[in-house]
Inverse folding.
């Protein structure tokens, strides 16, 4: 009975995938037998079913899909997706009895999935429900493949939604008049962007796109990794077997691939064309990049069932096969592709083409300086020119860029028709469940010193180990010891049946040069071979590191995973880890150097995560700095600096998914590099928050289009630009408003080398220092993390502060007279403040917090006071302070500005009036103990501030930005959007 029941209910759910939920039991009875009509049999089955039961899994997936469906169908009863009300509407439509409803609530709880942020221009909607479900062959199989691989139902539903946001904004492939859409998808570093564009390709091929070109990064390793993913998860065994000769079935791409032998490549149940769907034919392979086709015409020729009709008409489109090219962004490769396509140029205007540009901010963007342009033509870099040629010669080509660092893409000239500016849409993907990103290695919302934070509540304390600024062999030795220990813990957990760890890697990234990589490899191999890991000195080191680091971190953050409390219980696993990491040749070591050195090519061939387990230390530069996934990465030793946010973030190979070993992840880096990553993390989160804010429509219209995204990019450190200067020539922000949002510039002149400028700024602030003659006591707050979310709570203590009050016009004079370590620092914000009317902002309250007596002394500044002096660190370049404000003081400022906060404060509320802003001043020095009991000179004190404005400053039209962009017809001219 169980099999018949599962078949009937499964068929019922399949039928309802298109119609939405219907009366469940009668439909199952019609497809099975009458014994199912009352629902008792289903209830009995589900009560006995385990989590692996196929029908139980199908119910979970179907419920999640209906929870989040974007539709106004009658069954929704007017409810919005991703709400408890929607789930209730689903259960009502299924007409379930109360007992079954309760079981569903227990087993399939409602869980809202984060939705992508979409910034889009107007587009023509063509992906209605019927079009989606009529042809979903490849998408349906890919979805099932992911579920079978253990993906969470909600993760698959989220992927469905995110990919649909992309595909629906492409042009209808059957559209009579060609249209070329260009868009950008922004994910996180190492966060599953490949899964997203695999889903987009699946849906696009189903919809009728017949040539798919995937442009990967610039390395063979990344291209091959991408090709295999698509071959395995999209094309599948049947499409690949079309290439296998009947006379030599062993000679093919995956003849020695364990996943091919284990039948892990997706299966479609037969050749797709036999079921009326397109086959997908490859024009590149896992081993070979795209090459000039000897039979270019025939390989790219599309079958037309009706010769008198054009290819994009449904009669021909849905009976023709698709082609796939996976090509790295290399001049010679793309020239060959352009040349072959040129041989059939007279027919290309009928072919719906999808171009996926992975790592689209690398190589694709035109970095040619406008100074090199001539009259009516612009110079282009090679890859940008070739992508432009592809777009020009294929009018039905859709361009979708993928990146985690979109800065270069959105600075492209939006009016350059041959370039890749995402003029039609920008989709920002939500942070995936289980992902470790930049914020997981920083405590951004706490002022507690690192030494006082516990492993349980501090991400930084758990995962980051700070190095000295100069390389130290002892620190590298510790990192190697940690690599061995974490490998042993993995094997211990595996031995107890809690997980399987196929790969275990360590990354050493210190510099770009080949010679430095060779030297690092020699050093690490020597350290490994002299580590005495089976002897008393090595085991003594490992015991101490285990007991002081690995064990307390794992017990605090992952108590559900087995981590032996006694080091001796790990001894056999250390031996097993040593055997896996150490190569058979005892004269060498565990290092694989990964760079462009041809002499090392054979060694790098062993770095194939698909064909064999990899337990090695990887030393490299750019080859490991972007796109390529380092599987099993657990320990990173990182010293390489850069001046660009996008480059820095892309080098964060330690970001990604670390299932059942998140607690073991460690990064060894310098304090300065860690600080740079914190600033980059703030830049990234600022952009996403801004996109989320502006994605909300005003009066039914989008607040911004992709053209207006560049001003949303922030730079929290003046020495860390969003991207290379040669990618930023086109756009300039002139005004940015931040009603109710904090502003905290950090690029002050460095007092030790610019004492005159520091004293000049302090002189500007002298009237405010003189006016701060009132002392008020405010409530102290603390910021903690609850369920990985920052929460503000009362600390149970108070702090005193001097208060000054002044008018808005006077504050503008002060702010406008300050000197910054950067000509554009804080200028867009001041430009906005100058536009405000008195009813929006007419008064400022300035707060000078006092520290507790245990934290230092007070002194006069510019003849006024006394004021507390705060100690603040500077970046190594001395270009800016690392941080200004403290979260414990911000609650009072926010309440004075009329903002709602979780912690009430009567003293702050008394100072709050309409149209009032608040500013917290921090007289700061690099090291206040340097002066002992002597007063700190005025020209050594930086008066830094944190500023917040009231919500009354919100523009009437709801638009918060004003920006300038260069006219592509005249690069010297500026066009101003008037909001």
């Amino acid at each position: 009975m169980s099999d018949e029941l599962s078949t009937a209910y499964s068929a019922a759910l399949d039928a309802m995938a298109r119609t939405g939920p219907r009366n469940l039991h009668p439909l199952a009875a019609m497809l099975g037998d009458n014994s199912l009509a009352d629902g008792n049999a289903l209830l009995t089955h589900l009560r006995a079913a385990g989590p692996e039961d196929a029908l139980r899994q199908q119910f979970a997936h179907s419920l999640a899909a209906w929870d989040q469906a974007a539709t106004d169908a009658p069954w929704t009863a007017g409810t919005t997706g991703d709400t408890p009300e929607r789930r209730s509407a689903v259960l009502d439509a299924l007409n379930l009895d109360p007992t079954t409803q309760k079981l569903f609530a227990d087993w399939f709880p409602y869980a809202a999935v984060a939705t992508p942020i979409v910034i889009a221009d107007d587009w023509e909607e063509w992906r209605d429900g019927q079009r989606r479900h009529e042809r979903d062959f490849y998408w349906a199989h890919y979805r099932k493949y992911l579920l079978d691989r253990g993906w969470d139902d909600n993760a698959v539903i989220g992927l469905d939604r995110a990919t649909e946001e992309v595909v629906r904004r492409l042009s209808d492939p059957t559209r009579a008049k060609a249209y070329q859409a260009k868009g950008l998808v922004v994910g996180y570093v190492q966060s599953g962007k490949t899964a997203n564009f695999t889903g987009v390709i699946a849906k696009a091929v189903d919809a009728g796109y017949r040539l798919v070109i995937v442009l990967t990064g610039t390395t063979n390793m990344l291209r091959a990794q991408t090709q295999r993913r698509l071959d395995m998860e999209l094309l599948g065994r049947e499409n690949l077997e079309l290439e296998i000769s009947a006379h030599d079935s062993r000679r093919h791409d995956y003849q020695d691939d364990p996943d091919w032998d284990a039948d892990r490549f997706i299966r479609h149940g037969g050749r797709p064309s036999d079921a009326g769907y397109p086959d997908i034919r490859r024009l590149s392979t896992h081993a070979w990049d795209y090459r000039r086709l000897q039979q270019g015409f025939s390989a790219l020729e599309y079958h037309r069932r009706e010769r008198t009709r054009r290819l994009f008409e449904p009669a021909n489109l849905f009976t023709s096969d698709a082609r796939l090219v996976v090509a790295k962004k290399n001049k010679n490769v793309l020239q060959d592709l352009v040349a072959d396509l040129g041989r059939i140029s007279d027919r290309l205007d009928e072919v719906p083409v999808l171009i996926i540009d992975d790592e689209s901010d690398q190589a694709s963007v035109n970095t040619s300086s406008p100074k090199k342009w001539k009259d009516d033509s612009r110079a282009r870099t090679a890859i940008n020119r070739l992508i432009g040629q592809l777009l020009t010669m294929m009018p039905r080509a859709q361009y979708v860029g993928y990146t985690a660092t979109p800065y270069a893409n959105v600075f492209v000239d939006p009016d350059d028709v041959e370039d890749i500016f995402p003029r039609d849409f920008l989709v920002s993907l939500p942070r995936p469940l289980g992902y470790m990103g930049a914020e997981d290695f920083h405590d951004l919302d706490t002022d507690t010193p690192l030494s006082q934070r516990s492993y349980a509540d501090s991400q930084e304390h758990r995962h980051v180990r700070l190095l000295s600024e100069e390389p130290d062999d002892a620190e590298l030795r510790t990192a190697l010891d940690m690599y061995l220990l974490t490998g042993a813990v993995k094997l211990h957990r595996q031995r107890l049946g809690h997980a399987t760890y196929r790969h275990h890697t360590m990354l050493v990234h210190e510099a770009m040069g080949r010679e430095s990589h060779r030297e690092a490899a020699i050093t690490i191999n020597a350290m490994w071979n002299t580590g005495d890991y089976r002897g008393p000195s090595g085991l003594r080191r490992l015991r101490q590191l285990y007991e002081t680091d690995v064990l307390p971190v794992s017990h605090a953050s992952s108590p559900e995973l087995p981590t032996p409390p006694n080091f001796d219980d790990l001894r056999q696993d250390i031996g097993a880890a040593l055997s896996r990491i150490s190569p058979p040749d005892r004269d060498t070591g565990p290092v694989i150097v990964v760079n462009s050195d041809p002499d090392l090519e054979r060694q790098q061939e062993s770095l194939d995560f698909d064909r064999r387990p990899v337990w090695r230390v990887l030393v490299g530069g750019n080859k490991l700095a972007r796109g390529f996934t380092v599987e099993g990465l657990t320990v990173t030793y990182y010293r390489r600096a850069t001046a660009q946010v996008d480059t820095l973030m892309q080098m964060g190979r330690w970001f990604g998914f670390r299932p059942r070993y998140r607690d073991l992840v460690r990064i060894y880096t310098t304090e300065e590099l860690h600080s740079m990553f914190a600033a980059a993390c703030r830049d990234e989160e600022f952009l996403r928050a801004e996109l989320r804010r502006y994605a909300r429509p005003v009066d039914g219209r989008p607040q911004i289009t992709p053209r207006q995204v560049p001003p949303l990019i922030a730079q929290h450190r003046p020495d860390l630009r969003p991207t290379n200067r040669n990618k930023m020539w086109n756009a300039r922000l002139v005004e940015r408003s931040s009603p109710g949002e904090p502003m905290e510039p950090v690029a002050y002149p460095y007092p030790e080398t610019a004492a005159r400028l520091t004293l000049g700024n302090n002189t500007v602030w002298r009237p405010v220092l003189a006016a701060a003659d009132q002392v008020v006591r405010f409530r102290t707050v603390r910021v903690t993390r609850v369920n990985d979310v920052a929460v503000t709570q009362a600390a149970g203590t108070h702090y005193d502060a001097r208060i000054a009050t002044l008018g808005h016009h006077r504050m503008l004079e002060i702010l406008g007279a300050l000197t910054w370590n950067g000509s554009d620092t804080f200028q867009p914000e001041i430009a906005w403040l100058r536009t405000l009317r008195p009813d929006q902002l007419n008064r400022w309250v300035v707060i000078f917090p006092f520290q507790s007596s245990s934290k230092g002394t007070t002194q006069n500044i510019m003849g006024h006071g006394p004021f507390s002096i705060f100690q603040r660190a500077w970046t190594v370049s001395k270009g800016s302070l690392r941080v200004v404000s403290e979260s414990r003081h911000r609650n009072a400022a926010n309440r004075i500005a009329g903002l709602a906060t979780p912690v009430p404060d009567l003293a702050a509320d008394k100072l709050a009036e309409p149209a009032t802003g608040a500013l917290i001043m921090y007289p700061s020095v690099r090291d206040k103990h340097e002066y002992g009991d002597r007063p700190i000179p005025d020209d050594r004190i930086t008066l830094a501030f944190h500023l917040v404005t009231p919500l009354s400053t919100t523009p009437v039209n709801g638009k918060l930005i004003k920006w300038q962009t260069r006219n592509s017809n005249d690069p010297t001219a500026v066009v101003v959007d008037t909001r």
Summary: The two ends are 67 Å apart (CA to CA).
